[in-house]
Amino acid sequence: MQPWPGSAVPPLPGSPPALRLWDTASRSLRIAAAGPVATMYVCGITPYDATHLGHAATYVAFDLVHRAWLDSGLQVHYVQNVTDVDDPLLERAVATGQDWRELASEQTALFSRDMVALRVLPPRSYVGAVETIPRVAELVAALRDAGAAYDVDGDLYFAVRSAPGFGTVAGLDEQQMRDLFAERGGDPDRPGKRDPLDCLLWQAARPGEPSWDSPLGPGRPGWHLECVAIALDTIGMPFDVQGGGRDLAFPHHEMGAAEACTLRGGTPYARTYVHAGMVGLDGEKMSKSRGNLVFVSRLLAAGHDPAAVRLALLAHHYRDDWEWSDAELARAQARLVRWRKAFEAQSGPSGEQLLSAVRERLSDDLDAPGALAAVDAWVGATELGADVVDPQAPALAAATVDALLGVEVAG
What we know:
By secondary structure, this protein is of the alpha/beta class. Helix content is 42%, strand content 16%. The chain has helices at residues 53-71, 87-96, 100-117, 133-145, 174-183, 225-234, 249-263, 296-301, 306-314, 326-343, 351-363, 368-384, 393-405; strands at residues 20-23, 28-31, 37-42, 75-82, 125-128, 149-152, 155-158, 199-204, 219-221, 239-245, 270-276, 279-281, 284-285, 322-323. The strands form four sheets. Strands 5-4-3-10-11 form a five-stranded parallel sheet, sandwiched between helices. Strands 6-7-8-9 form a four-stranded antiparallel sheet, with helices on one face. Strands 13-12-14 form a three-stranded mixed sheet, with helices on one face. The mean pLDDT is 95.
């Protein structure tokens, strides 16, 4: 699968502080990567209803990680998957009368266009779940051979208690895990399972559903192991950052880590687990199941500047839950107009000071609101004209905003 094209990132002078991110597993700030190659896996979309603002907020957040690492002089191997076969996709295809492959292709293309518009840098490795099916089948067989997988009426399940450190990613108690497992695609009450939290590895073929031949028999993968297969085959383990929305911490990231550590004999899966907050609308988390979605493509089709949409997302710390409204976009649009006018000035206050301030804020767990405030202060000083004597400042300031925040302000 080909990733979307990326925009050029302007080079910046000097070097930033090391990026520190909040680790869900340790409940602490950790240096995100030591280098020289920074590795990150961010879970991608299930392509049946893309791209809503919850998606966009997550991928813009990890785009900041990507940009901060590039600014540090690190090589970045960023990996993202597309879950292009899964129950929700198949259900939507049946409901709309569309072929599931056509729906997946259409929505993946739409997502890519939205990422280009929002200036999200593409991953180096972009892999669909369908591409991984032979590899997933191999890993399921390996888990079965190790005694960590078992059969329930032809389906194969992962025995989570066989995994070293199961439960340490999300840090939830037993009841919390069971409740969330039922809510987020699990089947804790299925008869025949050894443990309610055991998760599906390989689903035997069902009438009317896609399946693939394999040494396990015809079928298709369960949800979690596809990401493990992709991560192991692209960046290996341990890798630096496992990312996604907070709703993926359990069960998805917990199960993936457990499966990977069982396969690799206890080696840590990821060094840092980073999770973005939820975007809400009308008092509820924005989600496909509720149908309370605001789509990037529809905002753009209505004539809104994609840079304003990105600024609206950056106005909130990535770990915070927040509520979308039309006022969010209006404030972002006003900020963008003000910024662009200031960056057209013939001179400005110190560009080096702005660069340092933005770097300092982003290095502290991606404090994007603090970085925007630093740019606002620079713009305000430019508007006042006091001590505005550096003709090189607007160019450096514009490069700073472009390279680190992903917002193009220069004309």
